[in-house]
Amino acid sequence: MPSLARRSMQVLSELGELAWFKLTSERHPLYGYQQLPFLGWRFRSPQEGVEGVIQTEVDATRTRVDWAFVTSERNWYLTPSRLVSEVESRGNGKFHEIMYEIAVEDQEFCVNALADLEGIVHRLESRFRTIPKSGSSE
To answer: What is the pTM of this model?
Structure first.
């Protein structure tokens, strides 16, 4: 099965041309702990209504943690609400520091959040992913 990053990029590409994409790796490459998932992207030219469609699918996914879909910036992102709340209360400059703290202090939360993101991406795939026609090279 393709990686979560590849699947995320593919399904988001179904909704518009991506100018930028970022998904944290599932595990820290050096220390091996589960990382807090953060999925960010920017469409070259967002289609009208795509924001609401994504939000509807995120809201309809059964999750273990609360999720935030943020579109108020140039880049859109999907991450656990806990990260957004802590960044808002402690300052935007602390974003990476807060991600690290949550990851090392609450592995159960990170494991649950990653499982949730898998579910959200699966739901988006079920709704939007184009199935290659037989005989296609994909």
So the answer is: 0.88
